[in-house]
Amino acid sequence: MSRAATLPRLIDGKATAARVLAEVSDEVADLRARGVQPGLAVVLVGSDPASQVYVRNKVLRAEETGIRSLEHKLPADTDEATLLALIEHLNASAEVNGILVQLPLPAHINEQRVLQAIDPLKDVDGFHSENVGGLSQGREVLTPCTPSGCLRLLQDTCGELRGKHAVVVGRSNIVGKPMAALLLQADCTVTVVHSRSQDLPALCRQADIVVAAVGKPRLIDANWLKPGAVVIDVGINRIDEDGRSKLVGDVDFDSALSLVSAITPVPGGVGPMTIAYLMKNTVAATRRQCLAARPAQP
Ligand code: GUN
Question: Residue limits of the Tetrahydrofolate dehydrogenase/cyclohydrolase catalytic domain (predicted)?
């Protein structure tokens, strides 16, 4: 085998996200030609700096792809009833096809009640129990953006996923659990491990595919990985090192690189895919709402 074939591949999330966004732009142009303008409402409560950056990027990407974005910024002391009333208004608005409430919400607001208030057909995060249940049953529903983006990176990197052993590190509702459901649907053998699992490194060493989503900087190093594994790092952790602030993943990138066949960098791996799949979900939601009842075009 040539040396080049044995070198680990950097999985370029930025480039893949650009391809997904180009697909979305084409789909939006097609919808607009039929007189349908997709609309995405993004709701931010409070002024958490990271959330502000995420929301700004979501709005920018929407505009770039031709999706109308409607931003709702509410003060941190907004009460739950006011937020629920806004969601009710957005559910009823014909201009809005997708609704995203940025998480986390302030502690005085019940997150679950808010997510359940969103019309499942407009739930572009895929967090409503109707969509969570649909995903676990293998129905065609709106699925969470980060795991959907990770799956696309894995499909592009590995080709066939059937029969591969995937270990998902982390069991959050946003990433770990839906990631496991998507991998199961792609015919992987799936193990979900978490902070209470025994001998995490030994469990991870069984994996052909590792998806790391725990929020612990550089937790996973080469000792946790099987040679040739494909690693998707969902972690975005800010740390101070050598007198400066930097972003690192849940995987110790430099250590893992000597062993893996492919790995996502942080930043520039999974992050851009989350936003690209939000746009894809917005188009899918618009199609279902606006075109389902129409006769096919001649
Ligand atoms: N906060 C962190 N990730 C997400 C996400 O995927 N969706 C929403 N709504 N909030 C988040």
Answer: 11-125
Which tens digit of pLDDT belongs to each residue from 35-87?
Answer: 999 999 999 999 999 999 999 999 999 999 999 999 999 999 999 999 999 99
CATH superfamily of 36-127: Leucine Dehydrogenase, chain A, domain 1 (3.40.50.10860)
**193 CA → ligand 1 middle, Å:** 21
Residue ranges of domains in the chain: 36-127, 145-270
The response to whether 99 counts as a known ligand-binding position is no
Residue nearest atom 3 of ligand 1, based on CA coordinates:
103
Tell me whether residue 170 is annotated as binding. Answer: yes
Please choose, from the candidates 234, 100, 120, the residue with its C-alpha nearest in 3D space to the C-alpha of residue 177: 234
Ligand 1 centroid–CA 102 distance in Å is: 5
